[in-house]
Amino acid sequence: MKPMKLDKASRKIAYLLRHAPDFTDEHGYVEIGTLINAVRETYPDFTKELLDEIVRTDEKGRYSYDETGRRIRANQGHSVQVDVGLVEQEPPAVLYHGTATRFLDSIFREGLTGQTRLYVHLSKDEETAIKVGARHGKPIVLKVQAGEMRKAGYVFYRSENGVWLTKAVPVRYLSAES
Ligand code: HQG
Fold it and tell me: What is the dihedral of CA 85, 88, 90, 91, to 10 degrees?
């Protein structure tokens, strides 16, 4: 499969594993054969080897096989209600969220919410946040006082692939980087 096509197949996988209603089980897993067949509906020459390649080379480590190797799931990013077994973690004092400037008014009114996803996605470095924000327009990085939030009882998780997650961030814990 050409790299372009593999990239498109990988987008379909991200969609199926994170957003397709009733595609995975309650823990976000699906049998590999089911996933491959679904991808083949659009890309008939898709194979298990290509799936292995996507999982192995994905730059964000988005996917994991289960311990038997028979099922696969996305580590984070879901909009469908799944429980991937996230374990509560002590966050660093500060985390970052990248967004687009056009969302700022709303964000400083309502705070950060997951929108279509189950959690707000945060990173420990600003570089990642800038990249995430640029997906939506002119990027801006927001500083999140995660340590303060934790002290106040808010819960943080870190996904298998290192993304920090929390349900919502109230305005008082947010500031815009200059
Ligand atoms: C914004 C990618 C208005 C929020 C990335 C964001 C990430 C608000 C957008 C992962 C708001 C949602 C997630 C409010 C939040 N008013 N806008 N109150 N609260 N927003 O794509 O964080 O490549 O669902 O700032 O790397 O951009 O898919 O979330 O701009 O880790 O693996 O609403 O997706 O990872 O956008 O990105 P998204 P995100 P993958």
Answer: 60
Ligand 1 pocket, CB under 6 A? 60, 62, 77, 99-100, 103, 106-107, 110, 112-113, 115-117, 121, 132, 135-136, 163
Residue nearest to atom 19 of ligand 1 (CA): 112
Give me the pLDDT at residue 2, please: 83
| Rounded mean pLDDT for each run of 10 residues along the chain, 178 residues in total | 88 98 97 98 96 94 96 97 96 98 98 97 97 97 98 97 97 89
Which ligand 1 atom minimizes the distance to the CA of 18?
A: 28
Residue type, 118: L
Q: What is the pTM of this model?
A: 0.93
Cα–Cα distance measured from residue 1 to residue 9, given in angstroms and rounded to the nearest whole number:
10
Report how far residue 100's alpha carbon sits from residue 70's, in angstroms, rounded to the nearest whole number.
39
State the distance from the centre of ligand 1 to the C-alpha of 159, rounded, in angstroms: 16
